[in-house]
Design goal:
The protein is mainly α. It has one domain. Helix 2 packs antiparallel against helix 3. The protein starts with a helix and ends in a 13-residue tail after the last helix.
């Protein structure tokens, strides 16, 4: 058995060195692929969080503006309708828009918390 036998297997297949080298290359490739997937997952989570934040922000602004609009619009509609009915109509529309925006924001929230690499 010479040194050539250690490089090539007994049946003519790859030897131990070649197999170990191939395992090393595959591990490096696997690690690079895993890092790329983690980056893509993080980008997706950030994008979902951004959408959720925008939706919930719109819902909050709609709620705050809604309170003001209810008072002002109710006074304007009170000239044509009873005051309670005017306030109810305007409040219903504003709360509907705010609820819809809040629901859309909630649907876009990240489904799982961002995990640190050591916590998996």
């Amino acid at each position: 058995m010479g040194s050539h036998d250690r490089v090539r297997g007994r049946n003519g297949g790859p030897g131990t060195r070649e197999l170990v080298g191939e395992i090393g290359r595959q591990l490096v490739h696997l690690d690079q692929t895993e890092v790329e997937l983690e980056r893509a997952e993080l980008a997706s989570n950030v994008q979902s969080a951004r959408r959720a934040l925008v939706g919930l922000g719109v819902a909050t602004v709609a709620a705050l503006v809604g309170l003001t609009v209810v008072l002002v619009s109710a006074l304007g509609l009170a000239l044509v309708l009873p005051g309670w009915l005017a306030a109810l109509i305007v409040a219903g529309v504003v709360l509907g828009v705010g609820t819809g925006a809040g629901y859309l924001g909630w649907q876009h929230r990240p489904r799982s918390p961002l995990a640190f690499p050591g916590n998996r």
